[in-house]
Amino acid sequence: MSEQSAVLSAPVGYFLLALFGVIWIALGIYWGRRAKSLDGFMVAGRNIGLALGTATAVATWITSNTTMLAPQFALQLGIWGMLAYSTASFGLFLFAPLAKRIRQAMPNGYTSVEFIRLRYGKSAYIVFLIISLFYGLTWMVSMGMAGGILLEALAGIPYVYGMSVILLVCVVYTLFGGLYAVIGTDFIQSIIILIGVVVVAVAILMRAPLTEIYDNLRTNRPALLDVFFPAAIMAVFNNLLFGIGEIFHSNVWWSRAFAMREGVGMKAYLLAGLIWLPIPVVAGFLGLAAPTMGINITRPDVVGPLVSAHILGYAGGILVFIVVFCSLASSIDSLLAATSDVVTTEIIKPLFMPNASEAMLRKAASMVIVAVGAITWAVCLPKVGTLASVLFFAGPLVGSTIWPIIVGLFWKKANPTGAVLAMALGSAVGLLAYVEIGWYSATLIGTGVSFLTTVGSSLLAPREFEWAVLLGERRAVTT
Amino acid sequence: MTLFPAWFFVFLVYASIAMAVAGGVLLLVLLIRDIGGKSIW
Q: Quick one: fold of A10-383?
């Protein structure tokens, strides 16, 4: 561990870990009293209001990458780096009308995989399930590893301890409280994160005026202010489409659309996009301020904490530690819950428990959360750095799902075979572009191929679809 | 090399901080409103 990067002593780090771990678990147990039924556990009773609905989308989308990678993006790609990161909010904006449609079309739904199965059939279900689980697990592994690495960098807590504690805390409170605990803690975490990034940014402004920071950059690192910074401009398109693909396909976002009460989803996602939009700029600005403040950055990945500690001293270090912990927890708990829902309802139920009652599925979902947490822990344990980079491969995969989802939700004549081909071809061609051209082109090309295949096949060979099918098995049982 | 003007940089940072503050306040206001309506979830 670099001495420069540690901004807290290990005992303080352990104390903060224990303090927030106990708080989240206690809240999970308290809110878990509501999560006795399957609907309560998986979709929080389907009655989430606008405040919690908005906050949970904001907090979940603020990962540790947002607070830690945005300053690094700014330090390396300048103003465009901050703007590129901000475009990830477009995923939230564009998902807003989908959230409304999802809630209306599938009032009893649980997962995005369920939608694909009912809308396009078994082949599409298999392709989508593979993409969905691959993405969910790699995102979770990247968050678990980021947790261990960041806590080690910030407070000198050994990687294995930090990673294990963060995963354990998230597993325990999600296990007790299901989506109630996830959404409830997300509200508190979103407020803490917003306060943290604003306090640090204002503290910097009080020390170094913006004009001084600008002049310093213009003199010493003008490329960071360049309007035509090619690598940064390409990052805009990749981030934009990656963000849209991540949100459109992932059950993390679909489960919230199911959980929000009628009429809330669209407003919640629009507001969440607005609240999230400035965060990469506010956090990223720390990276641009570093040279002016005379901070020698030897590790760009921890430039945010270094600048915070430089400005606010030990208090700044504590603040960053709490913000990072909240950012990690708000994403890991969501992934645990959303992945458990998919595995329980779309794999375990049809394969092993076709006649299971809701109570039995509720128990199975709990066990899946523990299993997913354990698998994530085991994969994170060896600290293979290249694993985190696997997430970048997911760009074309998730990008290829965008059009089958949009078309499937709104267009009655979408062709199911076209949807399968769109996801398979989009993923394959996108990955090829990743290897042959570069990371910046992969998502764009994968999404483009998927668009042409989905729309082309539906225009050439339209298939009628009965929307009532989306009401699912529950309707079939009750009618 | 064409640089972003200083006013744009200043506007971007100040506007973003203001939006982040407004976002936090909005969340609290919405929570109070929902609690008032006894329907946060």
A: Sodium/glucose cotransporter (1.20.1730)
Q: Does A382 touch chain B (CB under 8 A)?
A: no
In SS3 terms, chain A reads as CCCCCCCCCHHHHHHHHHHHHHHHHHHHHHHHCCCCCHHHHHHHHHCECHHHHHHHHHHHHCCHHHHHHHHHHHHHHHHHHHHHHHCCHHHHHHHHHHHHHHHHHCCCCCCHHHHHHHHHCHHHHHHHHHHHHHHHHHHHHHHHHHHHHHHHHHHCCCHHHHHHHHHHHHHHHHHHHHHHHHHHHHHHHHHHHHHHHHHHHHHHHHHCCHHHHHHHHHHHCHHHHECCCHHHHHHHHHHHHHHHHHHHHCHHHHHHHHHECCCCHHHHHHHHHHHHCCHHHHHHHHHHHCCCCCCCCCCHHHHHHHHHHHHHHHHHHHHHHHHHHHHHHHHHHHHHHHHHHHHHHHHHHHHHCCCCCHHHHHHHHHHHHHHHHHHHHHHHCCCCHHHHHHHHHHHHHHHCCHHHHHHHHHCCCCCHHHHHHHHHHHHHHHHHHHHHCCHHHHHHHHHHHHHHHHHHHHHHCCCCCCHHHHHHHHHHHHC
In chain A, where the domains are located: 10-383
- Tens of pLDDT along A107-151? 999 999 999 999 999 999 999 999 999 999 988 998 999 889 888
What is the ipTM metric for this complex? 0.96
- B15/A52 touch (CB, cutoff 8 Å), yes or no: no
Range of the domain at B20: 8-41
Give contacts of B41 with chain A, Cβ < 8 Å: 34, 44-45, 47-49, 52, 180, 183
- Whole-number pLDDT of residue A292: 87
Contact status of A451 with chain B (Cβ, < 8 Å): no
